[in-house]
Amino acid sequence: MKINLLTADVYNRIAAGEVVDRPYSVVKELIENAIDAGATEIAVEIEKGGKKLVKVTDNGSGIEKDDLPHAYHPHATSKLKKAEDLEVIATLGFRGEAIASIASVSRMNIVSKTKEGEAHSLSCTGGVLGTVCPAGGANGTCVTVEDLFYNTPARLKFLKSDGQEEGDVTGMISRFILSRPEIAFNFTADGKVKYRSFGDGLQSALAVVYGADILRNCYEISADKHGIRLRGYIGNQNFSKANRSYQSLFVNGRYVINQTVSAAVTNAYASYLMKRQYPFYVLFLDVPPEIVDVNVHPNKADVRFADNQIIYGSVYSVVAAVLDGNSRALEYLVSSDLPEARIQSTAKEIVTPAVTAAEKHAAKNEAAVSQTPPVLNMTLEEAKKELSFDIPPTGGRTPVGRDFFTPNVMEVHSPKSSTVRAQEDFFEENKRFLAEKEKKAEQEKLDVRSLAFKGELFRTYLIYESGDAAYLIDQHAAHERLIYDRLRDRCERRDVISQPMLLPYILNVNAQEFSFLEKNLPLLSELGFEIGEFGDNSFKVSAVPADLKNIDLEEFFGEVLSSMESLRAVKLADILKDKLATAACKAAVKGGEVLTDEEVRALMEKMGGNMGLKCPHGRPVAVKVSRTELEKLFKRIV
Fold it and tell me: C-alpha angle with apex 356: 350 to 357, nearest 5 degrees?
């Protein structure tokens, strides 16, 4: 076996796979270099989500003419001199890999000028250096990256759409604005200004990224515990988000994702958050450099602490104290703005009465239920009409086994024909099983004419007799299933009617959520929503599906955006399926309501003798009791 020494163009491309995987990685690395250079003003410009152009301009210290070629060399950096410096890293960059990696997969140009020197430029195309040339420019550095991954088509093919890439770049910029509120940022995408901050403090930065209203929903905290300083903003007890894209943690000024801190904050909020809701926070954790390792991964987004227990305990105790309003809360609050109802003054100290987690959780659930509007408002008379009108015949339904919410095409990516055949065999087996199941269900259907109505029980169950068996029908479950099937049939046929709203609903989101929803606008339209862009990071909903005309849009889009937590595509149809089930439940006749003979007859006719139906929530519609079972109960037979 012969061992080959890789050339620079090869190992730089390999390194690029770790350091630079997407346009936002390029933006991140270049901004970090600008910050390390002491810049107070940074301008970022991108085109086509950063695929066509990324340009970062700063007013930092600049690069000397003689050092320009060194900037493109791998492992060349101005931030480290010896191995011991790795123990006390105080800069954002330190490996010297970024410029070399980016230049190896793009067309790159650097124009730089120091305070005392002249401006010069140096280009690099696919890792091939040009020559240093005089140039015009102000103090600082301007780095231009064009045609990212032009020479690595395999990597280019796996980039996201322009909108999604732009969303990720925008999210990255927002975190730099928050992490460095003393720096003025200007971010432009395809000629449109997305962010402009003025370097005048964290409150202003929060307003730029999240809007001015964010401050009234947050507590500002500052605490020193065990040599660790925790500061920033956390959402109040009633302020939560549908996903974690509103959570920012900065360790020694570096944006990171850390499970220890995330778990500490989440557990502190445990008794205040509803299911699938996440706390909002922008937190700065300042720790001695020697107790944190940032040299874990080339992307520097992951860090390790020397003692996770101290970090967890410190963060949890501070956040929990503020949320619970206990005696130490005022030590951590920058301003004493806890609600008066939560803090009672005593002779010794300001103390809040103890409330158990269970009580707080129950109170929050009760409040949430009381404030949740009904999904579908329908009078009893309107609901009863569903028994006789507008329920399409069962013959038009999609065959059993094809979920109308599931895509019709399944792609098989394996190049091996045996794998494809195995997949096909698997699908064929499933189809046979479902076909047999459908056939069996048809055979078990009863002739409605053979059913004799014998009365009702508890104003909830209808009693029928057929041959040697009795059937108990849950009138609510049966009616609910029929209404659900009607709504579902409309969705299957894409025969959805939209109901215009009297006042449009404005949905405000962040950059990542915007690109996420933008990608799924066609599917939302198919489901009956009339929705379009409405300014920066906002959408306007002008119409909703007519069958769900009173849908809680805040709750619905909260569930949609919570899908960002997974790597799978959003299952909007699955969410709508739940809404249809809820709507059917609200509209169906309830237990305890008396049906007329005509309504009872109509209900059974629409069931078509199918005693195996289940309601949308999985409960059985009918229960069969045989004559033999009854006679055993009365000891007539053994």
Answer: 115
Q: Is the pLDDT of residue 89 over 60?
A: no
* Cα dihedral 22/28/30/32 (nearest 10): -160
Q: Which residues in 120-131 are b (16+ Cβ under 10 Å) and which e?
A: bbbbbbbbeeee
Query: Strand 281-286 vs strand 461-466: parallel, antiparallel, or unpaired?
Result: unpaired
Q: How far apart are CA 443 and CA 441, in angstroms?
A: 5
CA-wise closest residue to 195 among 365, 319, 31, 412? 31
* Strand 184-189, strand 41-47: pairing: parallel
Beta strands in 352-466 (DSSP E): 452-457, 461-466
CB 588 within 8 A of CB 483: yes
Render pLDDT for 243-302 as a digit per residue (tens, 0 to 9).
888 999 999 888 888 889 999 999 999 889 887 789 999 999 998 888 887 655 555 566
Specify burial of residue 51 (Cβ count, 10 A radius: 0-12, 13-18, 19+).
Answer: buried
The helix (H) or strand (E) run that includes residue 163 is helix 162-179
CB 573 within 8 A of CB 579: no
- Strand-pairing partners, residue 471, are 464, 624
Dihedral of CA 209/23/278/276: which sign? positive
The SS3 call for residue 462 is strand
**No. of H helices and E strands in the chain?**
20, 27
Task: Quickly list DSSP for 543-580.
Answer: EEEGGGTT--HHHHHHHHHHGGGSSSPP-HHHHHHHHH
> Encoding tokens for residue 281?
């926070």
Complete DSSP assignment for 99-127: HHHHHHTSEEEEEEE-SSS--EEEEEETT
Q: Quick one: pLDDT at residue 478?
A: 84
Q: Look at the alpha carbons of 156, 162, 164, 168 in this order and tell me if their dihedral is positive or negative.
A: positive
Tokens 């066609």 -> residue: 522
- The tens digit of pLDDT for each residue in 576-625 reads 666 667 767 776 777 777 778 888 888 888 888 787 778 777 788 888 89
Cβ neighbourhood burial of 219 (10 Å; 0-12, 13-18, 19+): buried
- Count of alpha carbons within 13 angstroms of residue 299, beta-carbon side: 15
Token pair, residue 475, equals: 């009138």
Nearest-angstrom CA–CA distance, 86 and 91: 10
CA 213 to chain centroid? 22
Q: What's the distance, CA 135 to chain centroid? A: 45
Question: What does residue 95 show for φ and ψ, rounded to 5 degrees?
Answer: -85, -25
Q: Strand, coil or helix: what is 463? A: strand
Strand partners, 185: 42
Hey, which residues does 469 pair with through a beta bridge?
A: 466, 626
Residue 538, Cβ neighbours under 10 Å: how many?
Answer: 12
Cα distance between residue 35 and residue 59, in whole Å = 10
Residue with tokens 């009854």: 630
Query: In sequence order, what are the beta bridge partners of 304?
Result: 293
Rounded Cα distance between 299 and 18, Å, is: 7
